[in-house]
Amino acid sequence: MVKVIAERRHLPTPNDECRLLAAIGMLLVERVLDRWVSAPGRALDDLIRQEFAALPAVLK
């Protein structure tokens, strides 16, 4: 994932920001999967959108 982030940012190699963003992304996916498994009937795509949508407010 780190390499893809670097490519999308037109960087020759991943930097610390790429690594941090990848780690945050993986953490959010892990949180979503935990919520999805513990809440039958919830749509996975909705949980993914909710988790990523909450991120900007947390980073203020």
Explain the overall architecture.
By secondary structure, this protein is mainly alpha-helical. It has one domain (2-58). Helix content is 75%, strand content 0%. The radius of gyration is 14 Å and the shape is elongated. The two termini are 25 Å apart. This is TetR family transcriptional regulator.
Topology of this structure?
Elements: H1 2-8, H2 16-38, H3 44-58
Helix pairs in contact: 1-2, 2-3
- In whole angstroms, the N-to-C terminal distance is 25 Å
Tell me the Rg in angstroms.
14 Å
| Residues in helices, as a percent range | over 70%
Strand content: under 5%
Number of strands: 0
Query: SSE string, helix = H, strand = E?
Result: HHH
- Average predicted local confidence, pLDDT: 94
Number of domains: 1
Low-confidence stretches: none
Task: Outline the biggest β-sheet.
Answer: none
What general form does the structure show?
elongated
Q: How many DSSP H or I helices?
A: 3
Please state the structural category.
mainly alpha
Summarize, please:
With 60 residues, the protein is mainly alpha-helical.
Key terms for this structure?
60 residues, mainly alpha, 3 helices, elongated, TetR family transcriptional regulator
